[in-house]
């Protein structure tokens, strides 16, 4: 089992290049299913979740050529619409194949992804939305079986909860439907806009992505395309927070401040000096006192749930009382017991984590429970006295490209060991 050994004490200094966004790349790679022509995707991060997605696409008969950051996909030869449990359970985003397979082939059998460490994460909105588009759907023996006679039919779909995945799945299904679909109470995340831009390059007719109402005029078929994935706002935010808590000075390159405005706002509240230009963001925390902040996670453009674990560790070591309220997932404080093992004083009251004072951390053996919890533990290790051993590190490899190399280039002392 691979683990990270992190020796604390070094402020992060220098430049880090931000990779393409996992949460944009996953649906974008999957969107290739909608066309029988080849697609080329650039700035794709090298992550475990991307490898799983390529394996899933290959399982359908798709030809995938992974040329590092560029992936070529030819979904022309697809000969199966079956997504087995063995592949789907490794990555929740696999459920996103349901809409595109159904829209292009008229049938799909996709395993239910199951629960997840951070919450139950049902897929009812995906299923109900597809039914509104005319699909017949049954859920049996852990599989979603969907079929439609002829094409899906455009419809008005109101989603009772704002869901990134359901918005993406329904948007991909609706592009090949007959007539117009309106997605109401849609998610507004930048990754949804990136997916819509990519689909429009393939010939889809989508307007309103990035707002609550997305309008999709169905077309009969889509072409191939070339698309460059947008920068990863969560990776950007993670490096900014790591720089802040270590009292460092870091420039994040190949990113966009517009993607991380809620994060920058909170870093400024925490007394960080943050500036930017067109494609980079600089944070300078040298000689400045870190102040605790109050955060409530919300759908975009609110504060992202995927950044709350990183801000928890910021509050742990900052001066003053800070609170973090999680409103998206019901079990997203798995990092708290691990941080406590390193000496963090964190109280949990319902869905709020309170850090009543600044804690001194000491290195300990801790375990990754999910992707962003792992990121918070790495950051904790960077400031703890002594060595932190982070086990089950595969969680972090799902969403951070070359994580230890990027931190080491900024002056951190991190090594990966396998025993
Ligand atoms: C691959 C990807 O892009 N993952 C992101 C995506 O996950 P994901 O798309 O799974 O998250 P959703 O936006 O769907 O989840 C938001 C909330 O809606 C609930 N829900 C969702 C679907 C459904 O059918 N029924 C239902 O009740 C979920 O349980 C959750 O409480 O958005 C999350 C919220 O920003 C992020 O944390 C994840 O990093
Ligand atoms: C929760 C996350 O991802 P996923 O939806 O793929 O589990 C995340 O990126 O923090």
From TrEMBL:
<dbReference type="GO" id="GO:0005737">
    <property type="term" value="C:cytoplasm"/>
</dbReference>
<dbReference type="GO" id="GO:0019277">
    <property type="term" value="P:UDP-N-acetylgalactosamine biosynthetic process"/>
</dbReference>
<keyword id="KW-0670">Pyruvate</keyword>
<protein>
    <recommendedName>
        <fullName>UDP-N-acetylglucosamine 1-carboxyvinyltransferase</fullName>
        <ecNumber>2.5.1.7</ecNumber>
    </recommendedName>
</protein>
<feature type="active site" description="Proton donor">
    <location>
        <position position="116"/>
    </location>
</feature>
<comment type="function">
    <text>Cell wall formation. Adds enolpyruvyl to UDP-N-acetylglucosamine.</text>
</comment>
<feature type="binding site">
    <location>
        <position position="328"/>
    </location>
    <ligand>
        <name>UDP-N-acetyl-alpha-D-glucosamine</name>
    </ligand>
</feature>
<dbReference type="InterPro" id="IPR005750">
    <property type="entry name" value="UDP_GlcNAc_COvinyl_MurA"/>
</dbReference>
<dbReference type="GO" id="GO:0008760">
    <property type="term" value="F:UDP-N-acetylglucosamine 1-carboxyvinyltransferase activity"/>
</dbReference>
<keyword id="KW-0961">Cell wall biogenesis/degradation</keyword>
<feature type="binding site">
    <location>
        <position position="92"/>
    </location>
    <ligand>
        <name>UDP-N-acetyl-alpha-D-glucosamine</name>
    </ligand>
</feature>
<feature type="binding site">
    <location>
        <begin position="22"/>
        <end position="23"/>
    </location>
    <ligand>
        <name>phosphoenolpyruvate</name>
    </ligand>
</feature>
<dbReference type="GO" id="GO:0009252">
    <property type="term" value="P:peptidoglycan biosynthetic process"/>
</dbReference>
<dbReference type="InterPro" id="IPR050068">
    <property type="entry name" value="MurA_subfamily"/>
</dbReference>
<dbReference type="InterPro" id="IPR001986">
    <property type="entry name" value="Enolpyruvate_Tfrase_dom"/>
</dbReference>
<keyword id="KW-0132">Cell division</keyword>
<keyword id="KW-0963">Cytoplasm</keyword>
<dbReference type="Pfam" id="PF00275">
    <property type="entry name" value="EPSP_synthase"/>
</dbReference>
<dbReference type="GO" id="GO:0071555">
    <property type="term" value="P:cell wall organization"/>
</dbReference>
<keyword id="KW-0808">Transferase</keyword>
<dbReference type="InterPro" id="IPR036968">
    <property type="entry name" value="Enolpyruvate_Tfrase_sf"/>
</dbReference>
<dbReference type="InterPro" id="IPR013792">
    <property type="entry name" value="RNA3'P_cycl/enolpyr_Trfase_a/b"/>
</dbReference>
<keyword id="KW-0573">Peptidoglycan synthesis</keyword>
<feature type="binding site">
    <location>
        <position position="306"/>
    </location>
    <ligand>
        <name>UDP-N-acetyl-alpha-D-glucosamine</name>
    </ligand>
</feature>
<keyword id="KW-0131">Cell cycle</keyword>
<comment type="similarity">
    <text>Belongs to the EPSP synthase family. MurA subfamily.</text>
</comment>
<dbReference type="GO" id="GO:0008360">
    <property type="term" value="P:regulation of cell shape"/>
</dbReference>
<keyword id="KW-0133">Cell shape</keyword>
<dbReference type="GO" id="GO:0051301">
    <property type="term" value="P:cell division"/>
</dbReference>
<feature type="binding site">
    <location>
        <begin position="121"/>
        <end position="125"/>
    </location>
    <ligand>
        <name>UDP-N-acetyl-alpha-D-glucosamine</name>
    </ligand>
</feature>
<feature type="modified residue" description="2-(S-cysteinyl)pyruvic acid O-phosphothioketal">
    <location>
        <position position="116"/>
    </location>
</feature>
<feature type="domain" description="Enolpyruvate transferase">
    <location>
        <begin position="7"/>
        <end position="406"/>
    </location>
</feature>
<comment type="pathway">
    <text>Cell wall biogenesis; peptidoglycan biosynthesis.</text>
</comment>
């Amino acid at each position: 089992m691979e683990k990270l050994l992190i020796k604390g004490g070094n402020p992060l200094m220098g430049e880090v290049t931000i990779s393409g966004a996992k949460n944009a790349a996953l649906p974008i790679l999957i969107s290739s299913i909608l066309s029988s022509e080849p697609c080329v995707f650039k700035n794709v991060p090298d992550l475990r979740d991307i490898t799983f997605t390529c394996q899933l696409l290959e399982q359908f008969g798709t030809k995938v050529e992974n040329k590092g950051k560029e992936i070529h996909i030819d979904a022309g030869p697809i000969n199966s619409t079956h997504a087995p449990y063995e592949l789907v359970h490794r990555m929740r985003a696999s459920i996103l194949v349901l809409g595109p397979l159904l829209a292009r082939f008229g049938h799909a059998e996709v395993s239910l992804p199951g629960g997840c460490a951070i919450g139950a994460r049902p897929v009812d909105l995906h299923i109900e939305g597809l039914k509104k588009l005319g699909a017949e759907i049954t859920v049996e023996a852990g599989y979603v079986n969907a079929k439609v006679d002829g094409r899906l039919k455009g419809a008005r779909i109101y989603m009772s909860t704002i869901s990134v995945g359901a918005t993406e799945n329904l948007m991909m299904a609706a592009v090949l439907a007959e007539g117009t679909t309106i997605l109401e109470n849609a998610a507004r995340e930048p990754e949804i806009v990136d997916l819509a831009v990519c689909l429009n390059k393939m010939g889809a007719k989508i307007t309103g992505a990035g707002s609550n109402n997305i309008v999709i005029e169905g077309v009969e078929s889509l072409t191939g395309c070339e698309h460059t994935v947008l920068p990863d706002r969560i990776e950007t935010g993670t490096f900014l927070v790591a720089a802040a808590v270590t009292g460092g000075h870091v420039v994040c390159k190949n990113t966009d401040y517009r993607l991380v405005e809620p994060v920058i706002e909170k870093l400024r509240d925490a007394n960080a000096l943050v500036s930017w230009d067109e494609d980079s963001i600089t944070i300078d925390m040298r000689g400045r006192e870190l102040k605790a902040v109050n955060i409530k996670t919300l759908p975009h453009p609110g504060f992202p749930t995927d950044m709350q674990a990183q801000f928890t560790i910021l509050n742990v070591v900052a001066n003053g009382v800070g609170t973090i309220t999680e409103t998206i997932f019901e079990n997203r404080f798995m990092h708290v017991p691990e941080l406590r093992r390193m000496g963090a004083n964190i109280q949990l009251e319902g869905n709020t984590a309170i850090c009543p004072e600044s804690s001194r951390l000491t290195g300990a053996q801790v375990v990754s429970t999910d992707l962003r919890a792992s990121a918070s533990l790495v950051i904790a290790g960077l400031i703890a006295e002594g060595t932190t051993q982070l086990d089950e590190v595969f969680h972090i490899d799902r969403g951070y490209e070359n994580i230890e190399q990027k931190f080491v280039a900024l002056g951190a002392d991190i090594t990966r060991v396998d025993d």
